[in-house]
Design brief:
The relative contact order is 0.13. With about 525 residues, the chain is of the alpha+beta class. A hairpin with a 5-residue loop joins strand 9 and strand 10. The protein has twelve helices and 24 strands. The strands form five sheets. Strands 1, 2, 7, 8, 9, 10, 16 and 17 form an eight-stranded mixed sheet that branches. Helix 1 packs parallel to helix 4, helix 1 runs parallel beside helix 8 and helix 8 packs antiparallel against helix 9.
Length: about 525
């Protein structure tokens, strides 16, 4: 096939799940054309991931999607997990999902419990008005890296036709069994496959057991039950039985509800899947970058996997936009792996810890029952009410890379990596590398709302800083009310330089050290050469 017949696109996105769709919306929002290919013939009809945490909702707020996602999701009181012997028994343990069950002062948004099949159409529509084609039923079968791009071979599974696309960069968000990762020979580290599981989607009238004690998840000795949509529908998650091919799924679900439940169950879908737990050894291979489950697959307990992938996309897409639009050097992309790889390992550790806590609670309950304590209302838990209190992991990440400068606008930080608060506790701070603290600029406008397809300079003295040149970088100068200077660690003439992803790139406690300070900082953060 001649080169003239090869279509060209700045970014090829492989995978049409939440991460790929969010990357498409972000890149189009930041002025980068994309082509997304997805081997499935349509969006997934299965609920799959069900929790959009507070940090992800901040990302969607920036895209103007938060309202639609909230409207399709559950009320905040469903942001809770409950443990029961059977679904129609009383709770013997319960815990809130921090940042989901109620607003938190650290964010302008609240997380949402919603099913992935409700989330994905909203994400797909987010870039439909732009020139952002999506090809369903199209599978990537081969990749060839070149000096200035990547040539991808694509097959339309409907008609069997093969085409080629040349992309400046490829963003692989094609899941835990990523074709791209396997073609590149990138290995993984971690436990790997942790078991075969089945999701059964069904309808049944369970309100008399659950309506007065709503929850997003009910853990029972007979599997995990979850309401799917505000108007109805349920899912049952259970280890896949040996006779899955011939299983009587309505009967299995009915029995799992508990003795005497006597409830009619109408099964609509059954999906078998593997619970994976790993982190890819690398997130980048030349011009090909991994994100989401292609880069890290974590157990579902705690709802961390999809959300970590959304933050991958948020971290990566502004860097791709900078390189492709000419205001960042290609070395900026090296900071993606440096910043997100450690987060993936922390996320995997937390998900494993969540699973261990769940198993310990269930083990303790079995011990109570054997000891004749089955009537007890509550287990003496081997944990606290912090099971889903993960704001430290979600909001407290600190990036260490060349895209973050030492405090007061000093030299680049050494090496790469990521720190964070404890897994449960989050302490807002305006240190470089941290997510910008949420502070109200007006009644309805947060400091986070000042971030977008640009760098943001927050300062109590805009007149002093606006004279500093920022060309060729996109920059907006935002007044910071005096009452927030202490929270940001600033004097009356100081400033914060905030990256498009909302993380602080540099901080000057007081007046700028020179007329070129801002220019030099932007050049260093973006890997550009100062003009």
């Amino acid at each position: 096939m001649a080169d003239a017949e090869v279509a060209e696109v700045p970014v090829l996105i492989v995978g049409g799940g939440p991460v790929g769709l969010t990357a498409r919306a972000l890149l189009e929002h930041w002025g980068v054309r994309t082509l997304l290919v997805e081997k499935r013939g349509e969006l997934s009809p299965f609920p799959r991931s069900r929790l959009v945490n507070v940090r992800s909702m901040e990302i969607f707020r920036g895209l103007g999607l938060a309202g639609a996602i909230v409207a399709a999701g559950f009320a905040p009181e469903y942001g809770r997990v409950r443990f029961r012997d059977t679904l129609h028994d009383r709770d013997f343990a319960t815990a809130a999902m921090a940042g989901v069950d109620a607003p938190v002062p650290e964010s302008p948004v609240t997380g949402v419990l919603t099913s992935q099949d409700r989330l994905e159409p909203t994400l797909l529509a987010a870039a439909d008005a732009a020139d952002a084609p999506v090809r369903f039923g199209t599978e990537l079968v081969d990749l060839t890296e070149e000096a200035d791009g990547v040539v991808a071979s694509l097959v339309d599974r409907g008609v069997g036709a093969e085409t080629r696309v040349r992309a400046r960069y490829v963003l692989a968000a094609d899941g835990a069994n990523s074709t791209v990762r396997q073609r590149l020979g990138i290995g993984t580290a971690g436990p790997g496959a942790m078991g075969d599981f089945t999701t059964v989607v069904f309808d049944a009238d369970l309100d008399r057991w659950c309506a007065r004690r709503p929850a997003g998840v009910y853990f029972t000795t007979h599997g995990m039950f979850a309401p799917l949509y505000p108007e109805g529908g349920w899912a049952w998650f259970v280890p896949t039985p040996e006779d899955a091919a011939s299983a009587d799924w309505p009967g299995l679900v009915s029995r799992a509800l508990g003795p005497g439940a006597d409830e009619r169950v109408d099964v609509s879908r059954v999906q078998h899947w593997v619970m994976n737990a790993f982190v890819a050894e690398r997130f980048r291979h030349g011009r090909i970058l991994l994100a989401g489950d292609a880069a890290h697959a974590v157990p579902i307990t705690g709802g961390l996997g999809m959300n970590a992938g959304l933050s991958d996309a948020h971290n990566l897409c502004w860097k791709l936009a900078g390189v492709l639009n000419g205001w960042a050097g290609p070395g900026l992309l090296e900071t993606y792996e440096a910043e997100r790889h450690p987060v993936a390992h922390r996320t995997l550790q937390q998900a494993v810890a969540n699973t261990q806590l769940m198993l310990r609670v269930q083990k303790r309950r079995r011990e109570q029952i054997r000891a004749g304590e089955a009537a007890s209302d509550r287990v003496e838990l081997p944990w606290s009410d912090r099971y889903f209190a993960q704001l430290g992991l979600v909001l407290g990440v600190t990036y260490r890379s060349g895209a973050v400068l030492a405090d007061s606008g000093g030299t680049d930080s050494d090496g790469g990596g990521t720190d964070s608060d404890s897994r449960t506790d989050y302490l807002p701070t305006a240190e470089p590398g941290r997510r910008l603290p949420h502070l109200w600029l007006t009644e309805h406008r947060s400091t986070l709302d000042a971030c977008g397809e640009w760098f943001t300079l927050l300062t109590p003295d805009p007149a002093r800083w606006v004279r500093r040149t920022a060309a060729p970088w996109p920059l907006r100068v935002e007044p910071l009310p005096d009452e927030h200077t202490d929270a940001c660690g600033l004097g009356p003439y100081g400033a914060l330089l905030v990256r498009p992803d909302g993380h602080i790139a540099a901080r000057w406690h007081d007046r700028p050290p020179g007329d070129s300070a801002l220019h030099n900082a932007l050049a260093a953060v973006t890997g550009s050469v100062p003009g």
